[in-house]
Amino acid sequence: MRRDGSYIKQSYPDNTFYLVKSLIDKMNEQQITARDMCKKAGVSDPSIITKWKYNRRPSIEILRACFNVLGYELSVKRMSNEASTTRGVHKS
After folding, report:
1. Is the predicted pLDDT of residue 2 greater than 90, yes or no?
2. How far is CA 7 from CA 22, 50, 86, in A?
3. What distance in Å separates the CA atoms of residue 10 and residue 58, rounded to the nearest whole number?
4. pTM of the model as a whole
5. 26 with 72: CB under 8 angstroms?
6. Residue 24: CB partners within 8 Å, gap ≥ 6?
7. Is the dihedral angle over the CA atoms 11, 55, 22, 44 positive or is it negative?
8. Is 69 in contact with 79 (CB distance < 8 Å)?
9. Rounded Cα distance, 36 and 34, in Å
10. Which residues of 42-75 are buried (b: 16+ CB within 10 A; e: fewer)?
11. Could you please report the per-residue DSSP string of 32-45?
12. DSSP-assigned letter for residue 87
């Protein structure tokens, strides 16, 4: 956030982990800074989201907490039968 209170949209490199990209896109939609996100999610390192953008994979617990702050939840969903067989996984 700028001194005048305006929001600075966050960006990320193309090779950023897809869940981190999604989190940052949702943070931009709601105009929440990385520092505010970390504070609200109870993360002690305010630079963790920046680290995720460039070289670190997030822990599932912290990532879930961040999505929860934005009103989203992470979940596991069974793939359809067709999708499972096309990826080489066959159900018995």
Report:
1. no
2. 18, 17, 43
3. 17
4. 0.78
5. yes
6. 10, 11, 12, 16, 49, 53
7. negative
8. no
9. 5
10. ebeeeebbeebbeeeebeeebbbbbbebbeeeee
11. --HHHHHHHHT-S-
12. T
Q: What is the secondary structure of 32-79 as a DSSP string?
A: --HHHHHHHHT-S-TTHHHHHHHT-PPPHHHHHHHHHHTT------PP
Instruction: Tell me how far apart the alpha carbons of residues 81 and 85 are, in angstroms, rounded to a whole number.
Output: 6
The DSSP letter of residue 28 is H
Q: What angle do CA 40, 42, 36 make, to 5 degrees?
A: 35
Asked if 10 contacts 28 with a C-beta cutoff of 8 angstroms, the reply is: yes
Task: Set out the domains of the chain in order of their start, with CATH numbers.
Answer: 19-74 (1.10.260)
Q: pLDDT per residue over 20-62, tens digit each?
A: 999 999 999 999 999 999 999 999 998 999 999 998 889 999 9
